Fold this protein.
Amino acid sequence: MTYPVILTIVLMPVVLLGLATVLTWVERRLLGLWQDRHGPDRVGPGGMLQAVADGTKILFKQDWVPPFADRGVFVAAPAIGMMAVLLSFAVIPVTAHAGIAGDMNVGLLFILGMMGVGVYAVVLAGWSSNSKYALLGGMRAAAQMISYEVFMGLSLLGVVMMTGSFSLRDIVAAQAGLWFIVPQCLGFGVFMLAGIAETHRLPFDLPEGENELGAGFHTEYSGMKFGMFFIAEYAGIVLVSCLVTTLYLGGWRGPWLPAGVWFALKTCGVVVFFILLRASLPRPRYDQLMALGWKVLLPLSLFNVMATGTILMLRASL
Amino acid sequence: MLDTLRTLFLTALHAFHRRATVRYPEQKPYLPPRYRGRIILSRDPDGAERCVACSLCAVACPVDCISLQKTEADGRWYPEYFRINFSRCIFCGLCEEACPTYAIQLTPDFEMGEYARSSLVYEKEDLLISGTGKYPDYSFYAVAGIPVPGKARGMAERERPPVDLHSLLP
Ligand code: SF4
Ligand code: SF4
């Protein structure tokens, strides 16, 4: 291992955790902006230190494990969620050279696998909490995330077929001429929807739907364990945004500016779009969510795979 | 699908709308003169306390947060002590309506935060102001029929002299 890679390995979690923490503030400011309010703007310049204040507060909160909970699993669940998200970042190529393992030949599969592990965090949290709301949230999470993982994988197939590689760096390299958002617009749409569902963000946050489930799968969590779920969720948003950038928006490619800046800009754009979705769309009913998945997104992504395959074959035979 | 995109667009446009928030500590909201806030006890135009310790306000108060004791001096009634527990007061204004002398009045001030609950119990010295409040010219004893030192029966404003029952003249 070379020296810069080790440095990146050490720095990446620190930067990511900081980013996810700041994102909680950014989201609240942006929501305020779109709801004719100001949002948190008191702590520090423009309220920037709000995240620090919240973090400090949550560190000093009582870290309570309910006596009826399954202690071991209860404690492990947030750690699993955090770990799965952080590990996924290892294969994200920030630029042509930066990143930890951007060349990994199964990069995309690794990310899908890590998202599969992320489901465990939510389901185990809901199960080990041993309370009704948490269990309902966990059940919803299991159904939602497992079914949306199917479409997510299928929608990515188009990109993989066009590149002929699972390595994320190869995928970006293949977008030299045209970003994949144009030929793969169907896949892009499905991937966006599936990404929101995977990170259980509004409008698809049924596992933690406040109005009917309290806080869903993390109802019984408090203190820093809750904080870990929270931060993992925001890191998940960053992850999905990075993926969208890498897979469909040409990754670090762009004129004039350095590669890393382009990557950061595109990722920020997608993150802001995620927040805009939260600000404007209502939450669907649970059966509507499942119906949308299996009746619309599944056929769409299958069609996308078929169409991409057909065109690729025709082009090869010409 | 189009509806959703339109929703997104319209929501994004809200970034350019006027903020609805009143930034309170820096920017004070307008409070009308009859806003029901901190309670005061006012004085006559000539500087005497208006309150005559009739206890009507204490009776009217729905949460029983006014407590007072009557005493007499110079031929008229005063409250010996007058205590309002603002941690119970609901600022309904019924005391002001009940008061026959305009002594007790609610003012447009609500910044009464305290760290200790007991500091919210206001004594007469805390309540009494030096001015007349909302009714600058009103003086209870000048219009009331009750005799006090310096003003006999029949000498109040718009009051006729008492009828002499022993006289047959019209
Ligand atoms: S405002 Fe209402 S609650 Fe407060 S002292 Fe007067 S009557 Fe009582
Ligand atoms: S404040 Fe008014 S109602 Fe209350 S005791 Fe004094 S005179 Fe009577």
